[in-house]
Amino acid sequence: MSAPAAAGRQLRRVAVASAVGTTIEWYDYFIYSTATALVFGKLFFTSLSPASGTLAAFATLGVGFLARPVGGILWGHFGDRVGRKAMLVLSLVLMGVATVGVGLLPTYSAIGVWAPVLLLVLRLLQGLSAGGEWGGAALMAVEHAPPGRRGRYGAFSQIGVPAGLILAQLMFFVLGRALTDAQFAAWGWRVPFLASIVLVGVGLVIRLRIEETPVFAQLRRAETRSRRPMVDVFRERPRAVLVASGSFVANTAIGYIFLAYLLSYGTSVLKIDRTTLLVVVIVGSVTWLAAILASAAWSDRVGRKPVYLSGSVLLVVWPIPFFLLVDTKAAVWLIVAVVVLNIGLGATYGPQSALFAELFEPRYRYSGASFSYAVGAVLGGAFAPLIAAQLQASTGTSLSVSLYLVAVALVSLVAVLFIPRSQPV
């Protein structure tokens, strides 16, 4: 095989590995979110009232986010010192172990208080894995990409989020159609978690076949790797950390309202059929995936900042119409609500891999990108479903949730305004 043909084959393999690997990682992450909205409050917090149990379940969802900056620092350090590929493999294994562990976990009725404690531990392990997964997958794609196409190839790591969500929702949709509510609560919810072991095996085979990135290989040959990556990040790129983290706050907060809170709100408050809501979420996720690909390609032509600005403005203006449409309970308006919302999410997520990579020097890029991503996720998404549920319960209106999301979106809009037009490459 000629050198150009071999390079092209490797590039395609990297794109597939980034997409498939992150899809599996986020499938694992999202089945936890979906199960949290549907059954965890009843199964693991039995001693609490239904409303309090739901809030406690959402709290475990948020606690997993708190481990993500730790994972970002840990994975980032070794990703900048040892290599991108090794960390990608380890993060996938850790996520798989934690997810299968949830599927095997006894409930409160079997082991009492140890059930929520162990659930919390496994969620923390998921958070550690997620903290390092994204940075490695993003850099694997971007650092292999040809000049002028970093956004397009970086999108392969981004589509893992909606693709993983689609896969998770399809799993729950099929189970919802095949099982009664009693069967689903008794054992059916475990199936998506246990199925993860097969998906992780597929992901490992793919990731073990890819090569290290040319950028890191050059750093290793030239012996210019950072000895203390996070220290160098804070010393040389503190503004980049603030801009990157802030730009992600709205995306992750509103994203988790869409993928976690909407199911809980729709079934418990609006009394919408669960299957209908799962279909709506799947439609929104397909829109999100398409918007990621389109916005990433667009960012290669016009720059990252204009694309981010368009998406950020949409996320500021849409939360109020979003809940007004959802509250109609009509399927057609539910679909309109989530489609428009996910166009905004896609525009503020598609170019992210390329943007974050371009904000940090290669020798500490894994640490800077991973830490910024994790901090933005904590500030935005960690407790967004919990805050939304509490606001709805205390005010009795979804308008309070809408105003909260507008405030969060304004934070990111300000951060986006400070994105530099020319970044390190």
Automatic annotation (TrEMBL):
It is a multi-pass membrane protein. This is Putative proline/betaine transporter. Keywords: Cell membrane, Membrane, Symport, Transmembrane, Transmembrane helix, Transport. Residues 14-424 form the Major facilitator superfamily (MFS) profile domain. One of its GO terms (molecular function) is symporter activity. Belongs to the major facilitator superfamily. Metabolite:H+ Symporter (MHS) family (TC 2.A.1.6) family. Pfam families: MFS_1. It comes from the Bacteria. The chain crosses the membrane at residues 29-49, 55-75, 87-105, 111-132, 153-175, 187-206, 240-263, 275-294, 306-324, 330-350, 371-389, 401-419. GO terms for cellular component: plasma membrane. It is found in: Cell membrane. The keyword Transmembrane helix applies. PANTHER family: SHIKIMATE TRANSPORTER. It comes from Amycolatopsis iheyensis. May be a proton symporter involved in the uptake of osmolytes such as proline and glycine betaine.
